[in-house]
Structure formats: structure tokens, C-alpha cells
Design goal:
Keywords: Cell membrane, G-protein coupled receptor, Membrane, Receptor, Transducer, Transmembrane, Transmembrane helix. The protein is mainly alpha-helical. It contains eleven helices and eight strands. Strands 1-5-2 form a three-stranded antiparallel β-sheet, with no helix packed on it. The two termini are 40 Å apart. The C terminus is likely disordered.
């Protein structure tokens, strides 16, 4: 599903070898069977080398490198924020950790290797990692979208049916395990059918390729591959988008459209505002996901029905752009959490302060946690001080806990 677009193959009856900027002609001959691949006799096919000029390679490398760094660091910080502070360990945040694990996996274990393959049209990472790389790609993508669905369902139940018991820690971990198990099953064909092969080019150089070889044929010639791609698209894009659109629409009507009977207390109003902020954040996450992945799925549908699209001279850069947009989804979620959630925002500040990323000025501003500074911080951050009905227990053993005492 996530392999790079194959080199352009166009039947051509002329036999001379032609070398120009983009293409050269090469005859594909199957030694074991003694036959030509296209079964048209001693014919040749056009092979598009897909080697970009150096300055474009540098540009794409910078774009992908920045994306991988932001996605990896951002998602690891999200995991640290939730696991390091007990007050952050809610059901929704556990699911956000699961989402961050999946996004960190795709950025570290998949994107760099696929990008290298697309850039140089050569797979130097070996036979095992060819299989493992594609397996991890589908597992992490599936886990991400199924986690988003789980969050939407959890929010739906909590807001539409508030009297129903909430999920506990054990049930949440069980759902997360089921998500990874289902994603692994969905990705299992990649372990079974991806393989590597060495092509000898007319100039004597070799090219290692990583591609799926299905039981009914190689990639782009397999009916099974087409059906798998369609099933993958339906299960990991259209059905989740439809499901999340419905659940968040119902939740939106409940939170913004309904009117409560009687007078609301300040605590009830604060609770509604908190739920609205969480739902807004998750709606933004889902919209970004839908925008990032739509061109990717459309590309494979279009090329399935119109194979000549891959003959376009700039198809490699078009696919690189589509692939970058899809993979960049893994770096947007931490940015959204930091932007729309005050607890995560303070957690990010605390992380970079601990790492010295804010410099000496940041260190001097955050060094002091005396009684006066802490009390002033709590007065400005805690909405419970408005009516004076809540008491706040402060643990001086954890600087990080002090930073995150304020509610969203």
C-alpha cells in the first residue's frame, strides 16, 4: 500500500538504448522462464530513473527531515506529559498516548526509510526491513485512526449518556491492545508478500527494489493488491471519517445546541466549557487527519483506474508531496494539543525548560517555586478560585506537578 510509485513502464518496439535526462530503454528478461516480462517478444520498455537534481533532493530532504524531527519530539513529549503527571491520566489522555505512540512509530521507523527509497530509487536496508517497514507503516496508520475513533466514541458516550459508567484504566488498556491487534492483522499481508529484488541496469549498475509480490502477480498487476488497497482505504479512512463525523456532530448539538433546565452553577458551567474545549481539540485533529490523508487515497484510486497517470514526467515529486502531506499528519497532533490545551502547553514549556531549550532567561523565570510565586500562579490559573469552593492540594515533591495544577 505504501510502496513508492513504480517506474514508468510503456511498451516500445524499438530496441536501441537511449540515454537522456529522464529515461533510458531497457529490456526486461526473465532468466528462469526464458521469457520477456511483457510477453510481446524481444521488445523494450521505457524505464524512468526518477533521480532528481541535487538541489531538489536537498529541498525534499529538509522538508522530510523537519517533519520527522517535529513529529518524533512532539509525540514523545506528549507521552511524557501524560505518564509523568497523575493528574493527566484520564481516559482521553491515555488514548492520546496511544495515538502518539503510533505517530512516533511511523515517523521514526517508516518515513525516513521510505523517503530514502523514493529519492534514490534504491532500497539499501535489506530484505527483512523491506517487510518490517511496510508492516509498521500500515500498523501505525491503522492504530492512529482506530484510536481517533475510540476517542470520539468515548466522548460521545460521556456527553450523550453521562450516567453510564466511564471506562476504567484496565478497559482503556484493553481497547488499546485490541486496536494494535486489529491493526497487526490488517497489516499482515505486507509481512507475507513484500520482498526485495536486484535489478541490473544497462549501464552495469544495480538497483535494489522493495515491492509486494502477491500470489496472482507483482504489484500493479495484482487483483488481490487492488482489493486490499480498496479495503484499506475504506477501513482506515471512509468508515472512520463517517463514524467520527456522526459522533462529533451529535456531541456538538448536545454541548452547544441544548439548553439546560434551571439555573446552572459555576461548577456546571466550567465543566461544560472544559468538555467543549476537549471536543473542539479533537474535531480539529480529525479534520487535519481527513485533509492530510485524502490526496493519498485518491492517488491510489486514480492510478488503479488510469495507469497512464504514472507516465507523467513529474509524478515522483507529485507523489513525494502527497506522501509528505499524509505523513506530516503525525506532527500536527502535538502542535494542536499545545495550542488548544493549557495543560499540554504548560507541559511542553516544562519539558523544554528541563532540557535547557529556553536558555538562561527561561531558567531564571521558571527557577523559583516559592510560596508567593506559587500562590500567584494558582490564583491566575485555577478557575476554582472564582467561587472559593475548592481546596487545592500541593505536592512540593514534583516541580512538574506544580506546573500543571491549573485546569484546562
Amino acid at each position: 500500500m505504501l510502496d513508492t510509485p513504480s517506474p514508468t513502464l510503456v511498451s516500445n518496439e524499438s530496441t536501441p538504448y537511449i540515454n537522456d535526462v529522464h529515461n533510458f530503454y531497457v529490456t526486461f528478461y526473465d532468466v528462469p522462464t526464458g521469457k520477456y516480462l511483457n510477453d510481446t517478444g524481444n521488445s523494450t520498455e521505457v524505464y524512468q530513473s526518477f533521480i532528481l537534481p541535487w538541489w531538489r533532493q536537498v529541498l525534499w530532504t529538509v522538508l522530510f527531515g523537519c517533519m520527522v524531527i517535529v513529529a518524533t519530539v512532539g509525540n514523545l513529549v506528549v507521552i511524557w506529559i501524560v505518564l509523568a503527571n497523575k493528574r493527566m491520566r484520564s481516559v482521553t489522555n491515555y488514548f492520546l498516548v496511544n495515538l502518539s505512540v503510533a505517530d512516533a512509530m511511523v515517523s521514526t521507523l517508516n518515513v525516513t526509510f521510505n523517503f530514502t527509497y523514493m529519492l534514490y530509487s534504491d532500497w539499501p536496508f535489506g530484505h527483512f526491513y523491506c517487510k518490517f517497514n511496510q508492516f509498521i507503516a500500515v500498523v501505525s496508520i491503522s492504530a492512529s485512526v482506530f484510536t481517533l475513533m475510540a476517542i470520539s466514541i468515548d466522548r460521545y458516550v460521556a456527553i450523550i449518556s453521562p450516567l453510564r459508567p466511564r471506562l476504567g484504566k484496565r478497559a482503556t488498556l484493553g481497547i488499546a491492545a485490541a486496536i494494535w491487534a486489529g491493526s497487526s492483522i490488517l497489516s499482515s499481508p505486507n509481512i507475507a508478500y513484500f520482498t526485495t529484488e536486484v535489478d541490473i541496469l544497462p549501464d552495469g549498475t544495480t538497483r535494489r527494489v522493495c515491492f509486494p509480490e502477491w500470489p496472482d502477480g507483482i504489484t500493479t498487476r495484482s487483483r488481490l493488491e487492488y482489493l486490499y488497497n480498496v479495503a484499506f482505504m475504506v477501513l482506515t479512512y471512509f468508515l472512520p471519517i463517517i463514524s467520527m463525523t456522526y459522533t462529533y456532530a451529535r456531541v456538538g448539538v448536545e454541548l452547544w445546541g441544548s439548553q439546560s433546565i434551571g439555573e446552572c452553577t459555576q461548577r456546571q458551567l466550567d465543566n461544560i466549557k472544559s468538555k467543549r474545549r476537549v471536543v473542539k481539540m479533537m474535531i480539529v485533529v480529525v479534520v487535519i487527519f481527513a485533509v492530510c490523508w485524502l490526496p493519498f487515497h485518491v492517488y491510489f484510486v486514480v492510478t488503479s483506474y488510469y495507469p497512464d497517470v504514472v507516465n507523467y514526467p513529474h509524478i515522483q515529486e507529485i507523489y513525494l508531496g502527497i506522501y509528505w502531506l499524509a505523513m506530516s499528519n503525525s506532527m500536527y497532533n502535538p502542535i494542536i494539543y499545545c495550542w488548544m490545551n493549557s495543560k499540554f502547553r504548560r507541559g511542553f514549556k516544562q519539558f523544554f525548560w528541563c532540557c535547557g531549550a529556553l536558555g538562561n532567561d527561561g531558567l531564571s523565570r521558571h527557577r523559583g517555586f516559592g510560596t508567593e510565586q506559587l500562590d500567584r500562579s494558582l490564583r491566575s490559573l485555577s478557575p476554582s478560585r472564582k467561587n472559593g469552593t475548592s481546596t487545592i492540594r500541593i505536592s512540593m515533591h514534583s516541580t512538574y506537578n506544580n506546573t500543571l495544577l491549573g485546569s484546562t
